[in-house]
Design goal:
336 residues, alpha/beta, 7 strands, 52% helix
Chain lengths: 336, 336
């Protein structure tokens, strides 16, 4: 807590959130998706008020190419976690969707039984039209779900584009789903994911068991090539089949092992590191945004982009021209 | 060219540079390494004056783990390029070195014959102690070498850390050197490189030919997994041995194929794209630096970092606190 004034409204919201009120959680998620400054202030105040969860929570990214069976796996695995007494929140990022507000109903067709369960919460994430938009909202929704009592947060992303690499920086563990046709499928998965996957599940493994085992062996090799050796965790590969729940138990055990009691320190340190990175990235963004909204700076950047595009000017000269304006506005005589 | 005033000194330097005067090239490289603003202005003016090379140039990163034989390969391959009439510049980034000024003598022990050749230029790059320091200087040295008549620029980096990923964004092609003991060696190579390598050379291949061929097959598989399919170029793998020049011809042919006449358009478009990225990255950096040098902003960022580290505050609140100061200094009433 800081000495910043916290509004009564924020205190009310954070209290209701701590009681697990779903409508308040949904409202706070909407605040997270908003770009209005007063919403951002309110949400920051809410987050400043909520208590740290008393039990350790698990933040898990679930990623994989379209058609790999993410929704089915999440539904069935989620149901089994609910039976074990967990409270499960799913933040589903769908870059192909043009939803802006995000609504539980919007995703009901995909994860119906989970969305209807009282101990689960499914929230589609808006596909941000500004850079890092989705990431920003999702990053804020995670602590909100935890404040509302959810101990397991699944962040579902489609293995396309930059989103899942961003997501890796806001979760504890990455679960990668892949089809048994490893060669083709892995090619479709953008670089970056294989290196950070903590658990890899070969899905639809019952269709051709031998192919799935071959795929697992290839993936094992790729991981050995790509991941830096770690004393703390060795990535696991499991075969899973959502249709008849084959392998889901193995999948759950692999994830449980990641969050074993003796590894909680590692997870905690990783989160601290993530918080600092998040702040530095936020600071760079707001500085850049604020500067670019300044008329004179904006005009000069546009002018220089055009000159560069036309090949009329070398980059260092364009940079200097912008620097002059920036320093002028910050009122400096540069001495160096 | 812009309507910016260009000093007589810059005109003199650029003229001498175009005549291929090595001492002037070395002096300009020193300007590139300087963080003094007047040096940066002078260098930008020089770059604004020099003519675009009349012949296509080749910018090639040469990367690989320590001990893989980069220097030997560069010496022998470089010598053969000199015999073919090329003029070869080597910008050698050595992150372990604490040199600051950079000197030809400093690197003589490693690439002696090349450094002594009249048509070659070897320049160690300072290991920047500020973020992106090496990258910034090297990026500036490339067009300087081209202005001085060098048509082939080799940027040597050690396959450790972030440097070779940065370098990939300033060259046309990436050559990765790796030992025949692929499993171990590739693990040592940081992620990111395998995905962008255009030519991979298995070095010291004469020691155990069978092992080298096995390594090449494994690398082929890794590349197939990692690189997005391209219509324009398929990465090539060659076996090379600097000691007796075995395979160097094959290596040269692979690189020549990359720069074949019908691919010059691709290379040119890539360079245009790199120039725009360079500018945007420069703009972000100067905005961030200028802001962080402002006393009030700097103080607030430090204060918030400490609060975050102590876990006293959520990230969004820390961000908002910095935003308030930034907007206040840019004198805004925020309406959104």
């Amino acid at each position: 807590m800081t000495n910043m004034y916290v509004s009564a409204k924020a205190q009310q919201l954070s209290q209701a959130l701590s009681m697990g009120e779903r409508r308040v959680l949904a409202k706070c998620c909407s605040l997270a998706e908003s770009t209005r400054k007063e919403d951002q202030i309110l949400l920051a105040e809410v987050l400043a008020c909520v208590a740290v969860p008393t039990q350790p929570t698990r933040r898990i990214a679930v990623t994989g190419a379209p058609g790999v069976g993410k929704s089915s796996i999440i539904e069935n695995w989620g149901a089994s976690m609910l039976r074990d007494g967990h409270k499960v929140a799913v933040l589903a990022i769908d870059p192909s969707s043009k939803r802006t507000g995000g609504s539980i109903l919007g995703d009901k067709t995909r994860m119906q039984s989970l969305a209807n369960a009282p101990d689960a919460f499914v929230r589609p994430q808006p596909s941000g039209n500004h850079l890092g938009g989705t990431a920003r909202a999702t990053r804020l929704c995670i602590p909100l779900c935890e404040a509302a009592g959810f101990d397991t947060i699944l962040v579902e992303t489609v293995g396309v584009g930059q989103s899942e690499v961003e997501v890796a920086d806001m979760v504890d563990a990455c679960l990668l789903l892949t089809l048994p046709t490893a060669g083709d499928d892995v090619q479709a998965i953008k670089r970056g994911i294989m290196e950070v996957a903590d658990v890899v599940a070969v899905t639809k493994s019952d269709i051709d068991r031998a192919a799935a085992q071959r795929a697992a062996a290839i993936l094992q090799g790729a991981i050995r090539l790509l991941q830096p050796p770690s004393e703390s965790w060795t990535s696991r590969i499991v075969l899973a089949n959502a249709v008849n729940d084959h392998g889901l138990e193995e999948l759950a055990l692999a994830v449980d092992a990641f969050f074993a009691a003796d590894r909680l320190d590692v997870v905690q340190r990783r989160r601290e590191h993530q918080r600092l990175l998040w702040f530095e990235s936020d600071v760079s963004t707001i500085m850049h945004d604020a500067m670019m909204r300044h008329e004179r700076i904006h005009g000069k950047v546009i002018e220089m982009r055009q000159a560069l595009h036309a090949g009329r000017i070398p980059v260092p000269l364009a940079t200097l021209a912008v620097m002059e304006v920036v320093h002028d506005i910050l009122q400096w005589k540069d001495k160096t």
